[in-house]
């Protein structure tokens, strides 16, 4: 890979009364098709090498924002070679540019096809905040040539020194070293602030309002969409009518709104409210810390671990009118409404009422069964007592004689009395007839008749 180290030593604005210095650090990458022979360098030199934003890649990042580079230079041969008569333009995000010349060399390394490149860039001018700039940039890194592409990557460090202000447009106002107001009624207040566009307003160091009616308020804020608003350090509103409020808040979608630290609204008409809230689908709304939407037109309340509470549920319930429904929720937490459940609940309530009636009847029957069981058990105990109390009279000793017996009995708390009679008949064969009886109360009574004899 091709690595270039780009070091900006100083950039000074011509005509400065008291110079102010701003550090700049960054890196850039260029990937371009190998240039065929020709161009402005021929015939003095062997060939012209050109690259710019139209190539595969020609960009970079700095503490002043992203940059793009357009450049051409002359070479004496294929690498290794001297780099001569270079011309460059570095454009910053807000549209400002630095222009100048450079020279250097591409030297062999131990790796075939990889060269150590170094260039010295001399600033000869610029536009916007960098109008009249001067200075030098030391650039160095690695250049690789393979598969028809030249790839170059490097870093830049240094400083920009300026006291210039630029006003271009009817009633434009710029206040602060390096500030620029470029448009009718444009206003820029703060070091390196820029208001590029009619009625654009940039307030704060390095604030950038670069579209019609854009407003950027705060350190390093960016409002680059028409009628966009960015408020808070490093807030960015980059789409038409977008609004970003809060440190590092980003509103990238058309007419989107991001409010809160690191809140992001990246789709058209999306809204993110709360720290790190993210609305990334069209017309979606994320509310609460860490809330994130998952589809268009969705409203997401709270992030992981949050809960939802209605401040006065009684007042909310009292405000309801018309037919009611039952709130439902799916596995993803999406709320819904089901009105059919009320009919099902009514049917269940009717069925439950019928069940209650049946259960009451069954309870009565069970109670009756227990009562009958108690009666049966009591009758059984009385019957046993009655059987025991009846007894047997002894066999009479002579014909015509009658014997008897009387008894009382107790069984498991139940009492009975009874007895029996036995009369011997006047016959040659001993025969007697007898009766027995017992009483245990209520209908628990017994009677017995029989014959007794001997042979």
From TrEMBL:
- Signal sequence coordinates: 1-19
Which InterPro entries does its entry note?
A: Adhesin_Head_dom, Serralysin-like_metalloprot_C
Pfam families the record matches: YadA_head
Q: Can you tell which superkingdom this protein's organism belongs to?
A: Bacteria
Keywords, ordered alphabetically = Signal
Residues annotated as domain Trimeric autotransporter adhesin YadA-like head: 195-220, 223-249, 253-277
**One Gene Ontology cellular component annotation held by this UniProt entry:** outer membrane
Protein name per Swiss-Prot or TrEMBL: Trimeric autotransporter adhesin YadA-like head domain-containing protein
